[in-house]
Amino acid sequence: MNKSVNESQNLRDQAYLGYTKSLLDQQIRPGQFITQRELVAITGFPLGSIRELVPRLEAEGLIKTVPQRGMQVPQVDLALVRNAFQFRAFLEEPAARLFARDAPDDAIAALRERHERILSRHRSGDDPTLMEDAETVDLSLHSAVIDLQENEILGNAYRVNWIKIKLIRLAETRLYVNMIPSVMGEHLKIIEAFERRDEDEAARAMTSHIETARRRAVRL
Hints:
The protein is mostly helical. The protein contains nine helices and three strands. It has two domains: 3-72, Arc Repressor Mutant, subunit A; 78-217, GntR ligand-binding domain-like (Four Helix Bundle (Hemerythrin (Met), subunit A), Up-down Bundle), CATH 1.20.120.530. Helices cover 74% and strands 4% of the residues. Helix 1 (3-24) crosses helix 3. The radius of gyration is 19 Å and the shape is globular.
């Protein structure tokens, strides 16, 4: 592959990251109609890269072309919540079983330590970075479960679905500070199953956690 092709691919990848960052930073809003030139202005990448990026975004469900109206950012609605959380359960339930069986002891211990540190900080009171750090720890468990499989197809599918889950959280719930004990507690039940190498319980705890998050997202 020649240098110009590599540079073009690198620019497309950077444009992709620019788009998803703008989406998660809420510079681009769910349901918004947007033009390619507006994406150039928001992301800072050239029109050629944006044009090459659009098919990938459409394939991943991160943008869609609406006839006679243009491109639309995904809407956060009940269909997105249902589809994203169902897909998440399909990926993470069997992955939790495999993690309980195969994960190194030190990886499981590190997950417990990170979660207990967040709970300790929550009990200590005012902490301006607590919510951001709690969200990072929240994601770390789910990413660890997926990443252990070392499966690029699985990892990419999970990454795209996580962007949709994040959009739902931004629109509906987020991990508010007062929710930290319950969310971390759900995670610790999963971690306890990992520590016992109990594959069935790890799968059940993961499924229960995802279903609780889905209900939270639709305010049931």
